[in-house]
Description:
Layout: H1 11-26, E1 38-43, H2 50-66, E2 69-74, H3 81-88, E3 96-100, H4 102-110, E4 120-129, E5 132-136, H5 144-152, E6 157-161, H6 166-178, E7 183-187, H7 190-198, E8 205-207, H8 209-217, E9 221-226, E10 252-259, H9 264-279, H10 281-289, E11 293-297, H11 299-319
Parallel strand pairs: 1-2, 1-3, 6-7
Antiparallel strand pairs: 3-10, 4-10, 4-11, 5-8, 5-9
Amino acid sequence: MRPMNLRDLPAVRVLAVVLVAAAVIAVPVAQARYPKTVVMLTTHSSPGGGSDVFLREMAPHLARVMGVKVVVDNLAGGSGAKAMAVLSKAKPDGGMFYATTPTFVYTSLLSKPAASFRDLEPIVNIFYDPEVLYTATNSNFKTLEQVITHARIGKGRWGAANPASLERQVMERLKQSAKVTPVVATFEGGGDMLINVLNHTLDMGIGELQEIRAQLDAGRVRLLAVAGDARLSQYPDVRTVKEHGIDLSVRKFRGIAGPKGTPPAVIAAWEAAIPKLLADPAYQRIYIKNGLLPGFVAHAEYVKFMSEFGRQTEAFLKDSGVIR
């Protein structure tokens, strides 16, 4: 059993979302003033990590759309446990939110945090985020096959985000599929992992394009494969992991969660703002460059998705013997 993905939502629901988004963009509607002048977006990621970069690049554009000041706060610790605990106790007044990824579900299921994903309110989903495998351009590895061969002779050191992350699960599944046993080192954020790839402490790492964008543009990082269903439009020559003969594909979701009891008016404000944000040409140039795929899902559907994703992920981890 594989964990549910947002792309599994029925096509009619996705179409409905698209039509709603189009209506919001095409027909200006007077919108009530947001109840807060400052909105804090928190992440468990350390500076330079995928969620950190996602929030910081989105913040100025979101601020313009919502008419508020948006600040980003890093609450690293416990693979999201600290951030979830803080948010669960925050006032549900529209002033504080958390960047959702599969990590906060995995953390909730793999450990016993003070607060879990079930103690938060899914607000909206914003993006899907393809994962890429990469190495340093001046390393000894030119292809994914070479990295795997190096691991097959009893060597190899791969990097991933924290233990309760989708990235770590990908690396573990890749090990199993390739029948190799490299060390998988974990990091609280993609920035720290990138440094270790660049200094050759790691043979390869896994992350999102926005995490490695500067080094990729500078020619210091080489993409090895895409851990998704399709190649990236920006890098059409980079094959998927499946095209390397390994049956492995994932897609990370990126959204926003708030404290339980978040008022309907606040949720409605986010549902109105995100389609406008995704249609903003200035922001489109940024997220398209980083390989982010628009994936707006409104509150009601996102609540259902998160519940089902949690249920299926728990079943997957039990079937795999990771948890009891």
